[in-house]
Amino acid sequence: MARKGFALFVLSVSLLLVTASSGVIRAADDALPSKSDASCLKCHEYNKMPATLAGKLSDVSVKANAIQLQIDKEMEVVHFNDATVLKNAPSVKEIPKQESIKVTYFKKDGKSIAKEIEVKKGIAVPKEQLATVEEVAELVAKGPEKGKYVLIDSRPTNLYDEGHIPTAVSMPFFAFDKMAGELLKDRDALQIYYCAGFS
User: Fold this and answer.
1) What does pTM read for this prediction?
2) What pLDDT, on a 0 to 100 scale, did the predictor assign at position 123?
3) What is the CATH number of domain 27-119?
């Protein structure tokens, strides 16, 4: 099992760090509603982020510079332009239909305009950084001090509260930057992350 310098991931579980789009968010944007597909809310708190839409890509119109986003049973049309930041895709027209995306937006002339379109993308975790259930169970049996590890549950707090692996500490991925300094003080400790996986 790899030790120093590596963060291990349990099975095919990944940690997705979501960063806010660059630039200043105007006060008016803070008041814009956020909508998120129920499947996204299992792992993310997009509904608590201002001016954010999250769901499945239904269609793209390059001619109209617009995407159609399915959020549960509703459809949202969001326009994009040259200033729109696109993450995890070479171009808007190459995003596969039904792919999960997150959009931060603002309003102009009654239209929703995308500041950023982020395509949900899995993380390819190197094989040597994966931990088996047996390896994690062995460490948990020793405890964090003897096993020299920190077990991070990166799911939203409500899921952690419903149940978690013994000795795990809650550090939702969206709070990583805020909590990392406190929970990851020991740089020599093995870091093990798990979440609910991608839906």
Assistant:
1) 0.53
2) 62
3) 2.40.50.320
